[in-house]
Amino acid sequence: MILSSHQPYFCPYPGYFAKIMDSDVFVILDSVQFPRGGTWITRNRFKNDQGVFWVGMPVWRKGRGLQRINEVRICHEAGSDRKRIESIKSAYAHAPYLEEHLPLFERLFSHECDRIGDADIEAIEHVVRYLGISTRIVLLSDLDIQEKGSSLITALCRSLGASEYLAYRSARKYLDEGLFCREGITLSFIKAPAPVYPQLWGDFIPNLSVFDLIFTCGPKARDIIGKSAAKGIGATS
Asked: What pTM does this model have?
């Protein structure tokens, strides 16, 4: 069984879902430490007639010390939530599949959604359902695992019965390959795909939020991601 994992990102790029598609189990690392600096956990890139624009979820940091991702609360500023919705609606007004997904964003940018981890997970699970991805999704917070780093990953594999861990090549320098070997777990690496697809507003820009792809291509997004991912497979150890 193949397992992969990742922190919950806000409306992640298509490659995030390519890794999910290539796994039997995907663990969302929702209870690891929230980063101190800029992070994809709170924002992502979309596209309008001016090029790239950011959509973000401001969170409460000051005076709260170290927090786990699933503890971090969203700062719902007066008027800002509505501006985020309007920026998406304006940028993708001509996208054929926008309306199907607006209720998700209406909920994310509302007081109904209080924590950034919950918002990110809801968006990720929305995409997984929409694309018909059958991979089992598990939250780290639902597992009794305290290890960190490479030991966390091998503990996940033992707990969930995985014999292989799948990661992108960029993560190789962070993983203790000797530990995986001693645990009898195959460590496999793939190249993060960057699918090309029809976009609004001029020249193609890679690695935007997956919703840029979904708003324009709808259910075909699954095949587009899958074909791109297949080209990136081959760097295993």
From this structure: 0.94
